[in-house]
From TrEMBL:
Residue stretches in coiled coil: none
Stretch forming the signal peptide: 1-21
GO terms of molecular function: transferase activity
Gene3D superfamilies assigned: ApbE-like domains
Cofactor: Mg(2+)
Family the entry assigns: Belongs to the ApbE family.
Enzyme class, broadest EC rank: transferase
Membrane spanning stretches: none
Protein name as annotated: FAD:protein FMN transferase
Catalytic activity: L-threonyl-[protein] + FAD = FMN-L-threonyl-[protein] + AMP + H(+)
Length: 356
């Protein structure tokens, strides 16, 4: 008798549970449907690029506005072309006086100097006079003479960017200048991702030019898919990343360039030569949980070229990379290869994985 009652109880319990599970599943489906319906998109121009944001959240409209304002605020601090930005003031005061900066600009300059040291100078924000000389700052392109390059290169020296007390900095020589173009968008993606996470957003994507911030997962819990561009054909891609919660940042010679006398000149400068880097690479994509670093490293590893870039990766533990070479190789570090698929891609590239 006792045993029977227990069985009935158990059965009752099971039925209750399966009823619960069905209701839970139904509730989850409704929630997911709601999340997918709560999709908000925006496209704006800022930081010299197109910014696309997608947020899945019922407060999406208001959050999109916050994201936009935040990016504009950062552009106001870091721009090299807006006269009242922190960076423009620092550059205008070069060789004259110290400049008081916001805590954020000061911190980003410090991070930039650290990455310069780590990368043996492949990343160098004092490259600005050379970037300007080639006409990439104002988009007035020009192939400089060797004399002009030598003169501009004499002003490139990150040791002469002095970080002083109380958030002040000083460029030691007149004509020196810094340009955060290779790191500011990555920093902005970190700031915006933090903002959205703090607001409890579980599903969002922000693309700042070639810089992608993935927040959480897709609303149905599956991974985000991001295409790796074919550097030889804008309309094609060489593979797909499947990721959650990370930054995916690409630098390539195909992104901003001009042509003169049949030769292509791009915007990533080798600080050793003063010329657009000719390292044998077409693009470098960095995957990392640190957007700022990912941006700086995508530029630095592009300058380094394949062998040095892979050595650098082997000595680091906070990023993974996919490098595409001029001779048609797509080379993924093991951590990147784990989230990268090129199944079904029909192209002339060969695919390789490198281990530590
Ligand atoms: P994008 O801005 O197109 O995403 P990058 O992140 O590679 O590309 O940044 C390139 C920009 O960084 C250039 O336009 C220039 O302002 C600056 N820059 C160029 N070469 C270097 C370098 N070696 N180190 C640091 N900054 C650089
Ligand atoms: Mg960069």
């Amino acid at each position: 008798m006792k045993g029977k009652r227990m069985m009935l109880c158990l059965l009752g319990g099971m039925m209750l549970c399966s009823g619960c599970a069905a209701r839970r599943e139904q509730a989850q489906q409704m929630l997911q449907q709601q999340k997918e319906e709560d999709r908000y998109d925006s496209m704006t121009l800022a930081m010299d690029t197109v910014i696309n944001t997608t947020i899945y959240d019922e407060r999406g409209e208001e959050l999109l506005l916050e994201v936009e304002q935040e990016i504009q605020r950062l552009e106001g601090l870091f721009s090299v072309t807006k006269a009242d930005s922190d960076i423009s003031k620092l550059n205008a005061n070069a060789g004259k006086e110290e400049t008081a900066l916001s805590e954020e600009t000061y911190a980003l300059l410090k991070t930039s100097k650290e990455i310069s040291t780590e990368t043996g100078g492949s990343f160098d924000i004092t490259i600005s006079p050379v970037v300007k000389l080639w006409g990439f700052t104002e988009e007035e392109h020009h192939v400089p003479s060797q004399t002009e390059i030598d003169q501009a290169m004499a002003l490139v020296d990150e040791d002469q960017l002095l970080m002083e007390e109380n958030n002040t900095a000083y460029l030691e020589e007149e004509g020196m200048a810094v340009d955060l173009g290779a790191i500011a968008k990555g920093y902005a993606s970190d700031v915006v991702a933090d903002l959205l996470r703090q607001e409890g957003v579980e599903s969002a994507l922000i693309s700042l030019g070639g810089n992608l911030a993935c927040i959480g997962t897709k609303p149905d819990g599956s991974l985000w898919e991001a295409a790796l561009a074919n550097p030889l054909d804008e309309t094609d891609y060489v593979g797909l990343f499947q990721v959650s919660d990370c930054f995916l940042i690409t630098s390539g010679g195909y992104q901003r360039y001009f042509e003169q006398d049949g030769k292509r000149y791009h915007h990533i400068i080798d600080p050793d030569t003063g010329y657009p880097a000719e390292s044998g690479l077409l693009s470098v994509t960095i995957l990392s949980e640190d957007g700022t670093k990912a941006d700086a490293l995508s530029t630095a590893l592009f300058v380094m070229g394949l062998d040095r870039a892979l050595d650098f990766w082997r000595n680091s533990d906070d990023f993974e990379a996919v490098l595409i070479t001029e001779d048609g190789r797509v080379i993924a570090t093991e951590g990147a290869a784990a989230v990268f698929s090129f199944e079904g891609r029909d192209n002339d590239f060969t695919y390789e994985t490198v281990n530590r």
